Amino acid sequence: MSLRTRLMLALVGLPLLLLGLAISLALYQDHGLREAAMEENLSTATRLVAPELGEALSLDDIAGVQAAANRLMDIPSVRALRLVQQDQVVLELGRLRAEALNVEAPSQGLLTQHYRQWVLTTPITAVDGAYLILDIDASLLLLATYSDIARGAMILLVCGLLLFLVAFTLGRRLTQPLDDIAHLLDQLAAGRQPHHLPLDHPLELAELGRRVNALIDHQARAREDLQQQIEHATSELQESMETIEVQNIELDMAHRQAVEANRVKSEFLANMSHEIRTPLNGIIGFCRLLGRSSLDPRQREWLDQVQRACDNLMSLVNDVLDFSKLEAGRLVLEQVPVDLQSLVDEVLGLQAPLAQQKGLQLLSLIYDDVPAEITGDPLRLRQIITNLVNNAIKFTDRGEIIVRVMVEQSRHERFTLRISVSDTGIGLSDSQQRRLFQAFRQATAGHSRQYGGTGLGLAISRQLIEQMGGTIGVDSTLDHGSTFHFTLPLTSTASQVRAPELALDQASIFVEEPHGPTRRALLHMLEQWDARVVASPQQAALALEAIAIEELEEGRIGELRARLRQRNCPTLLLINAGLPDVPGLGLPDGSSVLSKPLARQTLAEAVEGALAGTRHRPSLPAPTSTPALPSRQPYVPDETSTAAPAAPPQWNNSQTPPPSPDTQTSMASLLIVDDSETNRLLLRELVEGPERRVTLATSGEEALALAQQQLYDMVLMDIRMGGMDGVETTQAIRQLSPAWAKRPIIAVTAHVLEHQRRALLQSGMDDVLIKPLDTECLDRLLRERLGSGLTEMTPAPNSPVTDKYRQDASDADDSVEPAVRDQAHGKDLGKDQGQTRDNSDDQGNDLPDIDIALGTRLAGGREALARQLLASLGASLDETRREIEAALAAEDEEALLDSIHALNGACRYCGVPRMALLVETLETRLRSRGIDGVRPLLPTLEQAMTQVERWQQDSGETPLKGPV
User: How far does CA 853 lie from the centroid of its chain?
Assistant: First the structure.
């Protein structure tokens, strides 16, 4: 509350309050006096008139009664009168109101007040049973009171106005100087220099003004000092900034040098890794060949040492290569379907010999809620799990190693997978756990000498998992084992429930397994297969018994044979060792030996064969790998068991279901869009048949015009074309009509990575075909989309050159070209180990210029078509050469990429392995390094193009022609 408000309340409110109380008290007293006077007057009048009324009544003097009553009625406040005798009204003057009508005979005078109506009852003592009722109007009394209240209010109002004027005047004189001081302080707070306050005020305010003026002077001096300090600091800061700028330039130069040095280091590691692997592969190959020859025990021991050293060196080279790729950001992850059970089974199968040598129990537990098929990078998943399992075996001397795979979180088709590897090894301390995932670091310095390894495995696994979007961690207790676990966000379109491999129809099976986790996994798996577990082998149709490997030795095998012959059922023996020579063991018929860790599919085959009386009977088609544990959700058996016929294929919204049998007899119409005549004509030759009619379009604009005229059943769309490219054409076609929005449009391209493939599918494509076309993939696509496949199916091209086209584009660098070239030529990697090759100038020199056999395979087995396609390619090379030269002269990288991409697509269908490899490498380099990166290879490309043109001239083949 402000000072002015408090002053107003003190000078106006308090006096008015006191005055109001005084007036109220006076009014109250005056009202009481009026009531008392009125009551006294009425009482006196009735006392005087009552004897006279009694005497008149006793004499029956009506006139006397009337005269006495008139004197009472002359009183101003009397409104009505009634004289009652023996409950009979003798006289009534005026009209009594409500309260006066209900009065009983009083014993003495009584006055009752009812707001504006008073009732006075008086007995007539001279006459028995007679009394007088007076109806008195008190309104005049109230009116007098209201008049007094109005006068009091007027007095209060006048006094209030006077007090307000006095208070306002005093308040203004007091608060105005304070307002001036507040305004001056606001100016000081805003950084302005105000004028001094006048001192013509009362003593107290004048003293306050002098102090405020002193504050103004002090602030002015402080501001001047501050300004001087700011100017001094600014000059020093300017000098510091100049120094820092020089240092920043030096740091930037040092940073660039460090980045360049790191890049050179990563490229050097990658190049050296590839170059080391080339002779190392030769050494390993010759060691394996040498191992097949006759060697004495000492020589074989030496050879085994060489083989182990080569394997360790190869593992080290692979780790260094992966680590350098991860550091350089060049590692590209695949996104393909993965059967996780088969993958884990493969990892454990490869690591089983190491675990068996130590006597360790190796087990994998795949929970039931893990989808049958996920989408991910199988190579990197295998690498991570292998590293964790290998470490667990390495640091565990006794006990068990268990791999668990479960779904941690699931939502629609996306879920989080949790994979853990637990062991009973040496464990880790807290400090060891904190530095465990650093590169070239192990738990202790002595581990590398005692257990081997470089300390790169966990660092690579961590970076791979983080690149996949997951996390890795470890829970460990020193001397009690460790559990390494990681989570990965993945997708899956497969059913969440895996169909059981067998339907045993309550077949009785005896299980003897001392290892608890393995026994529980076997029991759960048999329950899934609808088997009944019994307590004795004499009651069983099949026995599963785990034995020690020593029981198969010469001295104890007889006891085992005798025990098995006493049974009425075949027995599957489970050993934690490599498989022995089973026929040489002399086991009873139907019995066999299985090696741990048990693969789920292998066990299913063995159980089915033993129950059927055979051993190696093919299993039912559900591929699985490892025993599964119950899921955290109830298990629901799949209705499509292995004995049931295959269910019809399911089609999602993005696919067009195949036509019904009634519509398959009609001819399907296809539109092929490609700016390369060779590609168009080859696609037409491959696809056209009795059930399909093909229309060709040379550009996206022409394809759009044709789509406006006709609705085709399928479109094969090239991606990179002049004018409208494949993506723009597809999006324009989709908008033509609702029918076109559902028609399958397939992308056909020669250079696509996994992320580019996903981008094509998201842009409106229904599928992607990679040039050169795999006839099996093309046939499958036609059958799924149109209901009929290729007329003549030939095996898919399987030449080394076409395999090379499937490589990751990051492997097309200089460092990998020697390995690719040797692989493409079919050369033994062990040859020419000591030679140094120029990777830029020697690109593809080992490949033939013309390979008719390869061209025939690419043309679907049609040699005549292959020769015509090759002649068409030769005829188009002159124009391609002019386009490349024009793009180089103009430094137009986009135009050069168009020309190289078009030539790459044309080479995909022709038997020109050398030029195909050159063009593929050119396109990859052009995308990653620019024009300067492809110039060293252009002379070699010119030589390859000249050889193709020369072949066309010598052969006299006519280029393939056809309607456009």
Answer: 49
- Assess whether pLDDT exceeds 60 at residue 223: yes
Helix and strand numbers (H, E) in the chain are 30, 22
Q: Are strands 78-85 and 130-137 parallel, antiparallel or unpaired?
A: antiparallel
As given in the structure block, the two tokens for residue 492 are 């899956």
Q: With contact defined as beta carbons under 8 Å apart, do 614 and 606 qualify? A: no
Compute φ and ψ for 437, nearest 5 degrees. Answer: -95, 15
pLDDT for 646 equals: 30
For residue 79, what pLDDT is reported?
A: 85
Sign (positive or negative) of CA dihedral 300, 303, 304, 305: positive
Side-chain-side CA neighbours of 361 within 13 Å: the count stands at 18
Q: Which amino acid is at 953?
A: Q
Global pTM reads: 0.42
CA pair distance 673, 769, nearest whole angstrom = 13
Of residues 19 and 203, which shows the higher confidence score? 19
Contact present, 627 and 600 (Cβ < 8 Å)? yes
Handedness of CA 264, 267, 270, 271 (dihedral sign): negative
Strand, coil or helix: 518 = helix
Mean of all residue pLDDT scores within the chain: 77
N-terminal to C-terminal alpha carbon distance within the chain = 94
Q: How far apart are CA 114 and CA 707, in angstroms?
A: 104
| Distance, C-alpha 293 to centroid of its chain | 56
> DSSP secondary-structure letter at 11?
I
Q: How far is CA 288 from CA 17, 283, 304, 819, in A?
A: 118, 9, 10, 20
Strands 374-376 and 471-477: unpaired
Q: Cis check for the bond before 772: say yes or no (omega within 30 of 0).
A: yes
Is residue 443 over pLDDT 70? no
User: Buried b / exposed e across 707-728, counting CB within 10 Å, b at 16+?
Assistant: beeeebbbbbbbbbbeebbbbe
Distance in angstroms (rounded) separating the CA atoms of residues 522 and 600: 10
Q: Which of 374, 363, 277, 391 is nearest to 334 (CA)?
A: 374
Q: What tokens appear for 457 in the block?
A: 């495995």
CA–CA distance from 764 to each of 143, 618, 683, 771, 782 (Å)? 96, 42, 22, 20, 19
DSSP state of 13: I
pLDDT at 625 over 50: no
Q: Indicate the pairing of strand 130-137 with strand 117-123.
A: antiparallel
**What residue type is assigned to position 153 of the chain?**
A
Burial state string for 764-790 with b = 16 or more CB within 10 A and e = fewer than 16: bbbbbbbbbbbbeebbebbebbbbbbb
Q: Are strands 361-366 and 767-770 parallel, antiparallel or unpaired?
A: unpaired
Q: What is the distance of C-alpha 350 from the center of its chain? A: 34
Q: Is the peptide bond before 597 cis (omega within 30 degrees of 0)?
A: yes
Which range, 47-51, 736-740, 912-916, has the best average confidence (pLDDT)?
736-740
Measured CA angle at 856 (ends 851, 862), to 5 deg: 150
Six-digit token string for 624? 């699985």
pLDDT: is 596 or 183 the higher one? 596
**HSE-CB of 10 using CA atoms within 13 angstroms:** 9
Q: Which amino acid is at 112?
A: T
pLDDT of residue 53: 84
Instruction: List 419's β-bridge partners, or say none.
Output: 405, 486
Give the DSSP letter of residue 647: P
Beta-carbon contacts of 318 under 8 Å, excluding residues fewer than 6 positions away, are: 273
Structure tokens at 27: 């009014």
Find the radius of gyration of the CA atoms of the chain.
Answer: 54
Query: Hey, what are 255's tokens?
Result: 């940073």
- Report the distance separating Cα 72 and Cα 80, nearest Å: 9
Q: Sheet of 592-595: strands edge to edge?
A: 531-534, 507-512, 542-546, 571-575, 592-595
Mean of pLDDT values over 200-218: 77
The Cα 465–Cα 472 span in angstroms is 7
Of 402 and 867, more confident: 402
**What one-character DSSP code corresponds to residue 428?**
-
